[in-house]
Structures are given as structure tokens and as C-alpha cells.
């Protein structure tokens, strides 16, 4: 088995994983019951005590935790230990409101480095690699998570940090970067910048990348692979669990292995809050099993995915696999009665070779009717005839996915403004009654 960081842990037999999870779940429940004011109150309201947890299925007796709970109570009302025992703090990027703060003990940082090392190794990182980390170093978890994990693997880390795309390309050229991390849409942008500098991305030494922090479709993945002649893996994570490092897709590319010795996953119906079946899509709910600073029970991520029923993956790992994150339940837009996820539009857009890296959809109200305009940038300036042909093709293909006819605007290269770390795909300017 290659591309593995901790073979013993990553291939634990199912019975052992369940045994370990039950032991750790019991421990976590005891800890929050004894130390976390927020959970003490919730346990009392639900009339549950740690003794009620006898099997893994008993998890359904425990309270959910929501983002709003964290916004109101974190960090102080959610901590299981004093701040004195913590050595680092991070905060969510705040894409959907007030950021949430999480504090880490030394052991939390160790676990984070371990799960990141597993994800990075699964994506092909070795101690021989030159690893470039083009993510802002700050309260966002991205840069530090990758940094700690890559160092644990033993790679040489270039902490290249935020933006400055030309500089990123120059660093790749100068140091011979072989592995890149970050956000997929940014990697595509870097490909464009290299070309603008007259550098063929394929001629650089980059051969592997691990990207996440936002939904990206197979089409976008393929686009990066073709532009750079590199392999691409997808990493999922969120500040509330640790940051990046919760799961990654292995070389089979048919699901993300989630580290079940540190996180317990459930998939629920977001309306009824009941568990859904295997292979059924629902909201990802996560419980931390080894966290000391801010353990969380049944955290409702609002991310949508399904679990796969596979005992042992062809890669040799036994940890459960979930599908690519389809998006957040709050990313779904309803327009003229149709539910649309940005990913559905991206899948169509990315099939067209002439389309560049950036696109978004603008929603407006005209004569009291919702309108959707999909704006796409081209890679290179197109002739009027080619522009019209592309508009026509996109109109037809997007219409077949969303049922009504969208407007399409094909724009020259680099005209859609960048929106920071995570791409903003929906600009909603509709009149709100
Ligand atoms: O985005 C952590 C991260 C950094 C993950 C770098 C991967 C790479 P937050 O800012 O707290 O943390 O945002 C977490 O981002 O709930 C998902 O909605 C979304 N997300 C993260 N990874 C993926 C992914 C980081 N691979 C939120 N696919 C999560 C789809 C993702 N969505």
C-alpha cells in the first residue's frame, strides 16, 4: 500500500473502528457534560446523561449543535478546558455571517497535523516534495493546517501565503515546486497568470495538488489537470472540526475517506433531522472524538453529501467514504420554483474549452419575475461569431438542467472581479419583499 501515512490507523478493521469510536464518544460526552456550560444546559433540557450512551446508535439521543449556537456561545461557553491550556486560535472565514472562533490545545494541533499528513500522503505528498502553500496565513485554518501536515510528512514547505499570483508562479519556477495546496478556483487562476507571463504551466514541475475549502466540480478538476498536467485531489474540512483534514479522496477518486478515529459522521434529513439511509443524500453531521479544546457533538455542517456502503476500498483503507460535497444547503437557490445549486451550472460551463477560470450567476428581478444571467469569462478573446456560438450552446445546455431559459453573457478574459479566497458564484440582486 503506497501513499499512506499511518497504515495501522488507516486500515483498522471495522470492528476495531467501532470499538474505538464508542470508547471515544463516551469519553467526549463525559467531558462536555462535566465542563461545557452549553452542553450541560442542553443535556438537562433533553434529560440525557452520559450513562445513556451505551452503543454508537445512542448518538441520536444527544443534542445537535448549530452554527448559531457557536456564534452565540463560542469560544468561552463552548470550551472544555481553560484558555490557558490552549496554544492557538482560528476562526471560520465568515462566508455565511459572523465568524466562529475555535481554540486548540497542543494535542488538538497534533491531531490536526496527523489527519492533514494522512490527507496529503493520500494525495501523493512525500518527503521528497517541494510543497507550496498559496493560502493566506492568518485566522483562516487553511494555511496552518496544510503547513503542519506537510511538515509532518517531511516535505519542504514554501509558506508562500496570500495571493500575489505572479510571485506564486515565480516561486514555483525558482524553487521547482512539485506539490500545491489551496483552493481549486485559485489554482486555475494561477494557470492563467502563468500563461500571461508566457510560462507554460505544464513545463513547471508541479505534479500534484490538494484543493478544498469550496465545492469544485469534476469539470473544474479536469481543467486544472489539463492546464498543469498534474493530478488533483479534493480535501474537505471546516474550522469547527479542526480546519482542512476531515476527509480526502484517494486514488480511486470515488469518495472521500473520513478519519473515523477522530470524527464521527452521520447524514440526516435537514427537515426531519432523522438519519437517512446509506447512499441517500442529506446534511453532514459531525462529532469530534478526540478534541480537547472545543469538542462538538452532532455539529450540523449544512454541507450536503451521502455515505457509500463499501467495506474496504481498493486503496486498502477501511475508513468510511462520503461523496464529494455537493454544496451547502444554504447555497441552494430557488428561482421560478426550481431548486438550483451552483455546481449544476459549473458542470455545464466547465465542459467548454473556451471558457476561462471565472464565472458567476447574477439573479435579478424584472417585472416581478426572477431572472438568471450566467456570466462566463473566456480564456482568450473570441470572435463575435464564436462568442455567439458559445452563448447559444450554454443557453441550451443550462436550460436542460434548470428547466427555464437563462441569459448568458460571454465576457472577455479576466473581467469578472476576484472575490477573495473562496469564489462567490451567486450574486443575488433580487428584490426582497
Ligand atoms: O474552508 C477549511 C479548509 C481549508 C478546507 C482548505 C479545505 C481546504 P471554513 O472556512 O470553516 O474552513 O469553511 C468550511 O467550506 O463547511 C464547506 O461548506 C466548505 N468546504 C470545505 N472544503 C470543501 C470541499 C475551510 N472540499 C466550509 N468541498 C465547509 C466542498 C468544502 N466544500
User: Under CATH, the topology of the largest domain is which?
Assistant: Rossmann fold
Distance between the termini: 58 Å
* Shape category: globular
Identify the strand order in the major beta sheet: 4-3-5-6-7-8-9-13
| Computed Rg | 22 Å
Strand content: 15-25%
In this entry the ligands are: 5'-O-[hydroxy(phenylacetyl)phosphoryl]adenosine
DSSP E strands, number: 20
Structural class of the helices, strands and pairings? alpha/beta
**Text of the CATH class of the largest domain:** Alpha Beta
| CATH architecture designation of the largest domain | 3-Layer(aba) Sandwich
* Whole-number total of structural domains: 2
Main beta sheet, described?
8 strands, mixed
CATH superfamily of the largest domain: ANL, N-terminal domain
The helix count comes to 11
Unreliable stretches covering 5 or more consecutive residues: none
The percent range for helix content is 25-40%
Average pLDDT metric = 94
Amino acid at each position: 500500500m503506497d501513499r499512506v501515512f499511518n497504515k495501522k490507523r488507516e486500515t483498522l478493521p471495522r470492528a476495531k473502528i467501532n470499538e474505538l469510536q464508542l470508547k471515544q464518544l463516551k469519553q467526549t460526552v463525559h467531558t462536555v457534560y462535566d465542563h461545557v456550560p452549553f452542553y450541560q444546559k442542553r443535556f438537562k433540557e433533553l434529560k440525557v446523561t452520559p450513562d445513556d450512551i451505551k452503543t454508537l446508535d445512542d448518538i441520536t439521543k444527544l443534542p445537535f449543535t448549530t452554527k448559531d449556537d457557536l456564534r452565540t456561545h463560542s469560544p468561552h461557553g463552548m470550551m472544555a478546558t481553560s484558555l490557558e491550556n490552549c496554544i492557538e486560535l482560528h476562526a471560520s472565514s465568515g462566508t455565511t455571517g459572523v465568524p466562529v472562533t475555535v481554540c486548540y490545545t497542543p494535542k488538538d494541533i497534533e491531531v490536526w497535523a496527523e489527519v492533514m499528513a494522512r490527507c496529503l500522503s493520500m494525495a501523493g505528498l512525500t518527503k521528497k516534495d517541494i510543497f507550496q502553500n498559496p493560502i493566506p496565513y492568518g485566522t483562516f485554518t487553511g494555511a496552518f493546517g496544510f503547513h503542519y501536515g506537510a511538515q509532518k510528512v517531511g516535505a519542504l514547505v514554501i509558506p508562500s501565503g496570500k495571493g500575489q499570483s505572479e510571485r506564486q508562479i515565480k516561486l514555483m519556477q525558482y524553487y521547482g515546486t512539485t506539490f500545491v495546496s489551496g483552493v481549486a478556483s485559485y489554482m486555475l487562476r494561477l494557470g492563467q497568470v502563468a500563461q500571461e507571463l508566457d510560462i507554460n504551466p505544464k513545463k513547471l514541475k508541479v505534479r500534484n495538488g490538494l484543493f478544498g475549502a469550496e465545492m469544485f466540480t469534476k469539470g473544474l478538476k479536469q481543467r486544472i489537470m489539463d492546464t498543469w498536467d498534474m493530478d488533483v485531489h479534493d480535501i474537505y474540512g471546516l474550522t469547527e472540526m479542526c480546519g482542512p483534514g476531515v476527509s480526502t479522496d484517494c486514488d480511486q477518486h470515488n469518495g472521500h475517506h473520513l478519519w473515523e478515529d477522530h470524527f464521527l459522521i452521520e447524514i440526516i434529513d435537514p427537515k426531519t433531522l432523522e438519519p437517512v439511509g446509506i447512499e441517500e443524500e442529506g446534511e453532514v453531521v459531525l462529532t469530534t472524538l478526540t478534541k480537547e479544546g472545543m469538542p462538538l457533538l452532532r455539529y450540523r455542517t449544512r454541507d450536503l453529501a451521502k455515505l457509500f456502503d463499501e467495506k474496504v476500498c481498493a486503496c486498502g483503507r477501511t475508513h468510511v467514504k462520503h461523496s464529494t460535497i455537493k454544496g451547502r444547503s444554504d447555497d441552494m437557490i430557488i428561482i421560478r420554483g426550481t431548486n438550483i445549486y451552483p455546481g449544476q451550472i459549473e458542470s455545464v460551463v466547465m465542459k467548454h474549452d473556451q471558457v476561462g477560470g471565472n464565472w458567476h450567476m447574477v439573479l435579478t428581478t424584472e417585472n416581478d419575475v426572477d431572472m438568471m444571467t450566467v456570466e462566463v469569462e473566456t480564456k482568450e478573446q473570441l470572435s463575435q461569431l464564436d462568442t455567439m456560438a458559445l452563448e447559444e450552446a450554454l443557453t441550451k445546455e443550462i436550460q436542460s438542467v434548470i428547466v427555464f431559459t437563462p441569459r448568458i453573457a460571454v465576457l472577455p478574459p479576466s473581467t469578472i472581479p476576484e472575490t477573495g479566497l473562496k469564489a462567490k458564484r451567486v450574486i443575488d440582486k433580487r428584490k426582497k419583499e
